[in-house]
From TrEMBL:
Top-level division of the source organism's lineage: Bacteria
Keywords assigned by UniProt, alphabetized: Membrane, Transmembrane, Transmembrane helix
Alphabetized Pfam families for the sequence: HAAS
Transmembrane segments: 82-115, 121-143, 150-168
Species the sequence originates in: Lactococcus allomyrinae
Membrane is among the record's keywords: yes
Official protein name in the record: DUF1700 domain-containing protein
Length: 205
């Protein structure tokens, strides 16, 4: 059993050493309390590498739940690792392979559409602000010729700049909302996979 857990630890990359030790101690105690043999553990959780991937997925799901409001780089890194682990988990099972391929294609198509949509919003906001400043600069060029025309173009410039600054935070908010919806879908798949892998959240045993 110790050899099995040692092999598991080798594959727990991306998790702080203290956390990986606690995870292994947690499951070692669980195996002892349940009187599970090495054969039973292998049959239930698979190879050390597969077990480690499931443990990492569980760890990152827990971390994301605890830091759901954080936008720190470390939390973003954990989320990217979580997405990758869930993709690996889907493609690791022959039974789930057709579902995984279909789901991957759907997610990929949705991501392309959303990225294109967000990109167009960002371009529109930037274009509004830049055109506003350009119009404002141009207005000063005709100030000596016509005061009325200067006022007209200045008004258009401020409207464009104002709209740009109004829509900028709304676009950022939309990006945040869409990303959170994507992560909710990813985590839902992750929870399904952890249940399928017989992995329990710490404190659930």
């Amino acid at each position: 059993m110790n050899n099995y857990l040692n092999e598991v630890q080798k594959h727990l990359t991306g998790i702080p050493q203290k956390e990986s030790i606690e995870l292994l101690e947690y499951y070692e105690e669980y195996f002892l309390d349940a009187n599970l043999t090495l054969e039973q553990v292998s049959a239930k959780y698979g190879t050390p590498k597969k077990f480690a991937q499931a443990l990492k997925m569980t760890y990152f799901l827990e971390q994301d739940a605890e830091n759901s409001t954080s936008v720190q780089p470390q939390n973003t890194k954990h989320r990217l690792q979580l997405v990758w682990l869930i993709v690996l988990g889907l493609f690791a099972s022959p039974l789930l392979l057709p579902v995984a391929l279909s789901l991957f294609l759907v997610l990929f198509a949705c991501c392309i559409v959303l990225i294109a949509l967000l990109f167009s919003y960002y371009i529109a906001v930037i274009a509004l602000i830049l055109s506003g400043f350009f119009t404002l600069i141009s207005a000063f060029g005709i100030l000596a010729q016509s005061l009325v025309t200067f006022i007209f173009f200045t008004g258009i410039a401020f409207v464009a700049i104002g709209l740009g600054f109004i829509f900028a935070p709304l676009t950022l908010k939309l990006t945040h909302v869409l990303f959170n919806l994507f992560m909710k879908l990813i985590k839902w798949i992750g929870y399904k996979l952890t249940r399928k892998s017989n992995i329990k959240m710490r404190g659930a045993i």
